[in-house]
Amino acid sequence: MSNTASKFKIGANNDSMIAELFPKDLSLAPPKLDVPTNLNFNVRIQMDGLDFLSTLEENSIPVAFFDPQYRGVLDKLGYGNEGVGRGNARCSLEQMRESTIQEFITSISQRLIPSGHLFLWMDKFHLCSGFTSWLEGTPLDVVDMMTWYKGRIGMGYRTRRTSEHLVILQKKPRRVKGVWRVRNIPDVWYEEVRRGGHTHKKPIRMQSELITAVSNPSDVVIDPAAGSFSVLEACQNSGRNFLGCDLNG
């Protein structure tokens, strides 16, 4: 049993222990970020994500989101709708090979401060088939996962999809105390997102809660493949500074 777990007693008042593990003020203090002149906070930037990451200082960012445009699901699961209906919009986006995804994750890990977090969006195919090879050579550990229940049925060859998954990664050293301030976020999150616009919209309230949990007001949150720029809206809702880009702006 871990030292933390051993301190909790069934039926005991654990309020003081909870307050110690989940303080209101986070102990992480990112350095002041010197942003290149071609980048601006809290706007949509049209730029290649790897080029964007290369301009940022290492060990300077507390929070990152990454939503890869997965190629694997198109290569290995033949739904038969890749150029039809909703599948047409999905396939019109530039797809990422696994080597590209790994390159993104490696670069993000270098920009994160120690004990910083990467929230990695994951589809069911890659969650089941394995994604740990993307983390090889990085100081990132899987520390948790959330499931986003969308409230509507989607594609699927056998079962139909109603959810997506968010893998929570932390840069070493792994810490909870002074790094994660919120203790009431459920691991299954229900939030409907309006149809229309970008084909891969993400839940703004869910992302806002996670940003609030692991960062302080005015901290910088990055997203190098921003898509619908839902993380920008989440930052606006939570009082953080967004810095991110997408190939399509």
Q: Any descriptors?
A:
single chain; 249 residues; alpha/beta; 9 helices; 8 strands; 28% helix; disordered N terminus
Please tally the helical runs, counting DSSP H or I stretches of 4 or more residues: 9
Morphology: globular
Rg computed from alpha carbons, rounded to a whole number of angstroms: 18 Å
Head-to-tail CA distance between termini: 49 Å
Oligomer: single chain
Characterization of this structure:
- This protein has helices at 3-7, 15-21, 49-54, 72-76, 86-92, 98-111, 124-129, 204-214, 230-238; strands spanning 45-46, 61-66, 112-122, 140-149, 163-171, 188-190, 220-223, 241-246.
- It is α/β, with parallel strands linked by helices.
- The chain has an 8-stranded mixed β-sheet with strand order 1-8-7-2-3-5-4-6, sandwiched between helices.
- α8 packs across α9.
Can you describe this structure in just a few lines?
By secondary structure, the protein is of the alpha/beta class.
Give the helix/strand layout:
Layout: H1 3-7, H2 15-21, E1 45-46, H3 49-54, E2 61-66, H4 72-76, H5 86-92, H6 98-111, E3 112-122, H7 124-129, E4 140-149, E5 163-171, E6 188-190, H8 204-214, E7 220-223, H9 230-238, E8 241-246
Parallel strand pairs: 1-8, 2-3, 2-7, 4-6, 7-8
Antiparallel strand pairs: 3-5, 4-5
Helix pairs in contact: 8-9
